[in-house]
Automatic annotation (TrEMBL):
Residues 117-160 form the Transcobalamin-like C-terminal domain. It comes from the Bacteria. It holds the Pfam family DUF4430. It comes from Streptomyces albipurpureus. InterPro entries: Transcobalamin-like_C (IPR027954). Keywords: Signal. Residues 1-28 form the signal peptide. This is DUF4430 domain-containing protein.
Amino acid sequence: MRQALALRAATATAVLGLTLTVAPTAQATPVTTHTNSPVLVKLTVQGPEGRLFKGLVITKGHDVTTATGGTHACDGTNGGHYPTAVPTPTAALDDAARKRNFTWDGTWYSSFDDFSVDSIKGVSGGASAYWNISVNGVSTPVGGCQFRIKTGDQVAFTWTTF
């Protein structure tokens, strides 16, 4: 009986070893995601006298053109923040303005590789205020063409005094 159990154990071990040797190994396959896929965000523009815009916007990173700043990429590749294009807050503002027929303007700063939003719907920051950009209630640590946004984010441009 002992001999039969030992033979079974040896056979099971050999079969298991052979199975592990010839079984294909699972390999991690790289996940390729298109990072500049359109996202749906909630955009709010709050001026000194109240809300100037609130709505859902579908956006992705793209070239942006302003009267003052000209045409430049606004897709997260600015300043080398992302290796490929991604949706950004300023691109969302630009899409909302084009689709909802309001204006905005911004100066391009090549040293920052980004726009500074100067006015939205005719309301400018001027010498004592600026347009703060926040995502989900937190001010962005970089410019609006350098910060990546995702579906469901709450993007806000808020007129803010110094």
